[in-house]
Amino acid sequence: MAALVVLLLALACTGGLYAVFAPADKAQADETAQSLTIEEGKKLYAVGCASCHGTGGQGTSDGPSLVGVGAAAVDFQVSTGRMPAATSQAAQAPVKPAVYTQAEIDQLAAYIASLGAGPAVPTEEQYGPQGADIAKGGELFRNNCAQCHNFTGKGGALTHGKYAPTLEDVAPKHIYEAMLTGPQNMPSFPDSTLSEQNKKDIIAYLGEVNTDQSESPGGMSLGGLGPVSEGLFGWIFGLGGLIAVAVWVAARTAKAKKS
Predict the structure, then answer these.
(1) Which of 79, 162, 193, 202 has a C-alpha 20 to 30 A away from that of 236?
(2) Could you tell me which of 68, 224, 200, 48 has the C-alpha nearest to residue 137?
């Protein structure tokens, strides 16, 4: 009987000690891994980013401060190849192949996030199509985004050589991050302006528009760029046709008078 009691006490002590120390060990391991990630990101930053954004991310005359921009802004800018910028003289940074691997981008994002609180990289649950309302997304897109990206999402011209890029073939995660952080000329849409569900709806709508290969119900789409291409078409063909008719009528009239 005494041996059984001793065995039960030993098992209870073992279980209690495991419950006390195991979570602490796991938390410590997670903290160590995060510290290593930040340290690697700091090394990458010093080589590829500090010359423009400053050694501590405080910004310089060649690049803005990165304190408080968050991991989402880093993931968007670096994953799409906009950063590192090819030149500081361009009106805005264009999309190009990414310089860093996703693992390196995660390290850079972790380091920048350590400089100041900011939006985190969204999860697939946040930007995935599950539970999205495409019709609501279309309404939100037309009210908040179409003025720059036009109603088909093909992009459009802005002032001083800047432009709203096309949204075709853009990853849902990057669309979410752009709405969350407001890169370059774009305003930000935090959750207080557009909720997570609103962003999910817009992304689902854009996915539907980009995969819809049906004919344009309005006839020739002219690239879907709106008044620029439509106005150009009107000037060249409409006004050109009127001039041609006027010349033809004048020639016929002159010929009739001579005869």
Answers:
(1) 162
(2) 200
